[in-house]
Each structure stands twice: as C-alpha cells, then as structure tokens.
Specification:
Blueprint: H1 3-30, H2 32-39, H3 41-44, H4 65-81, H5 83-94, H6 100-136, H7 149-166, H8 169-178, H9 184-189, H10 191-205, H11 211-241, H12 259-276
Helix pairs in contact: 1-4, 1-5, 4-7, 6-7, 6-11, 8-11, 10-11
Family: Belongs to the TatC family.
GO molecular function: proton motive force dependent protein transmembrane transporter activity
Biased composition (Acidic residues): 249-261
Length: 277
C-alpha cells in the first residue's frame, strides 16, 4: 500500500475510534452522579477525625472545577466503554501486515488485554483508601485535611491507569516470546533483575508511594510475570521439539513452501485488486 493510502487508513481508523470515545463520554456525562459516587467511596473511608465535623467531603477550589470534573469522568467512562471499538480499530490497522498465524495469536492477546486492564483497575480501586489512610493519618490530630476534588480525581486516575497498564506488561512478554524476540532462556537469566525492577517500578510509579500500595502493585505483577515465564517455557520447548523443515536439505534441493507467505501475498493482491476496481 502506498504511503498516502496508509495515512488515509490511519485517519479513518482514528476518526472511528474518536467517535466511539465521544459516544462513551456522552454516556459517562449522563450517568455522572452514580459514577462519581462510586469513584469517591475510597475517600469516604479515610480517618474521620481529620475531617470537618467528622464528615469527609471533597473541596471545590475553583469556579470551573465542577465542569472539568464532569468532563474528566465522562472521558474516563468513554475510554472504558469504547475500548472494544478503539482496540478493534487498532487491530484492523495492524492486521493486514501480519501473517495468518500471527493474526490468530493477536486475537487471543487482544482478548486478554481488556480483562487484565480491568483487573488492574479493580485492584487499584480496592487499595486506594489504604494509601489515603496512611498519609492522611500522618497529619497531626488537631488538624483538618482539605482535599481538593481535582487533586483526588487526579490521584484516582493515576492509580487506575498505572495498575491497569502494569498488568499488561506480562502480556507483552508473551507476545515477544511468540514473535521469537525474547526467549525463555533470556527471561530465566534475567529473573533477578526483573524481580528487582518490578519492585523499583512499583515504588516509583504508584502515586502515593506508600509500602502497602507498592506491594499491592508489585506482588500481583510478579505473579503475572511468573505465568508469562511458564508460557514462554512451554512455547520454546514445543518449538525446539518441532522438526526443522530445512534440516537435511542439500544446496541443490528446493526448500519447503511457506504457505503463510503465499496466503499473505494472495490477500495483498486481493486488496490491491479491490482498490483498482
């Protein structure tokens, strides 16, 4: 495909993804009240002795804070609701350049990406109040903590996003192993550095950076990396047992036909013919 056709294809995919995001954001704007009640629940569980009249409420500092909170919550909900749409658009843009075997595995990876992201977000939601209790509880007993609504939403966004994306990292390990870029032997050799890197990343990436939140992110991520390593082990073991199609061939003997390459060329020819017509 020429460069301009690639750019037009990318533009069309981005437009469709943005339309899905806007449609989801409209839903998030309409149902803002129940969604906001759900998001602020972790804050209501902080120590009440640091709140005004023992009742914890968030503070609005500016005139436009209410509008921006509605907008941010709507965009968060829109991104979650429209995730099947923009994930499909991403896949539809990349898929024509993949082999048939790679497309099959990509379907599996794309299907696993959404549950992993949601699992990370759910864990972040369950642990948000623990970090808040630790740091707000350090305030002197005769003080009142006033937390701005923008500040709290930024903290909640960072927690949900960081946990969700971190849970995707072991999936990339599996993808690289399937693609032949990362072998199980290399993963096993770098195990200690990976474990150390996971804990350092969890300590730096978490917004509150308290020990409880760090462990809540590092330990599940470590378990997922162990699962990815096991999958890489069985994949490399099965690959080593597979017979080499080029073994025993002389220089004058023809090599086997790559059926996946033929399928890809046929698909490319069909798409070129459709554009010509």
């Amino acid at each position: 495909m020429p460069l301009m056709d690639h750019l037009r294809e990318l533009r069309n995919r981005l437009v469709k993804a943005m339309l899905g995001l806007v449609a989801g954001a409209i839903v998030g704007w309409i149902f803002f009240d129940p969604i906001w009640d759900f998001l602020k629940k972790p804050f209501t569980r902080i120590p009440p002795e640091h709140c005004i009249n023992h009742h914890c409420d968030l503070v609005v500092h500016g005139i436009f804070d209410g509008f921006f909170i509605h907008l941010k919550v709507a965009l968060i909900v829109g991104a979650v609701i429209s995730s099947p749409i923009w994930l499909y658009q991403l896949w539809a843009f990349v898929a024509p350049g993949l082999y048939k075997r790679e497309r099959r595995w990509t379907y599996i990876f794309m299907t696993a990406a959404v549950p992993l992201f949601l699992a990370g977000g759910a864990l972040a939601y369950l642990t948000m109040d623990k970090g808040l209790k630790i740091f707000i509880g350090l305030a002197p007993g005769d003080t009142t903590v006033l937390v701005g609504i923008q500040e709290y939403l930024g903290y909640a966004q960072a927690m949900l996003l960081i946990f969700g994306l971190t849970f995707e990292l072991p999936l990339f390990v599996v993808v690289l192993n399937r693609a032949g870029v990362l072998t199980h032997a290399r993963i096993r050799k770098s195990r200690r550095m990976l474990i150390f890197g996971i804990f350092v990343f969890a300590a730096v990436a978490t917004p509150s950076q308290d020990p409880f939140t760090m462990l809540a992110l590092a330990l599940p991520t470590l378990v997922l990396f162990e699962v990815a390593e096991v999958l890489a082990y069985f994949h490399d073991r099965r690959k080593d047992r597979a017979p080499d199609p080029y073994e025993g061939l002389s220089d004058d003997e023809a090599s086997p036909i790559d059926l996946d390459e033929i399928d890809r060329q046929i698909d490319s020819g069909d798409r070129s013919g459709d554009r010509t017509h």
